[in-house]
Design a protein that fits this description.
64 residues, 2 helices, 84% helix, rod-shaped
C-alpha cells in the first residue's frame, strides 16, 4: 500500500515539469542571443573599423 501511495504522489508532483519548462525557456533565450550576436557581429566589426579609420585621420587641437 505504501508503494501505491508513493506512485500516486509522484503522478501529482509537478516540480519536474516546471524545471523542464525553465530549462527549455533558458535554452531558447541563449539560442536567440547567439543568433542575434552572429547576425549583428559582422556589421559591428565593419562599422568599428570605419569609425576607427575616420577618427585616426582627425587632427588633435591642442589650443583653444
Amino acid at each position: 500500500m505504501k508503494l501505491f501511495n508513493l506512485i500516486k504522489r509522484f503522478e501529482r508532483d509537478e516540480d519536474g515539469a516546471v524545471t523542464v519548462d525553465w530549462v527549455v525557456l533558458t535554452a531558447a533565450i541563449v539560442g536567440l542571443g547567439i543568433a542575434v550576436l552572429t547576425t549583428v557581429g559582422g556589421a559591428t566589426a565593419d562599422y568599428s573599423e570605419t569609425i576607427g579609420s575616420v577618427l585616426s585621420e582627425q587632427g588633435v587641437k591642442t589650443t583653444y
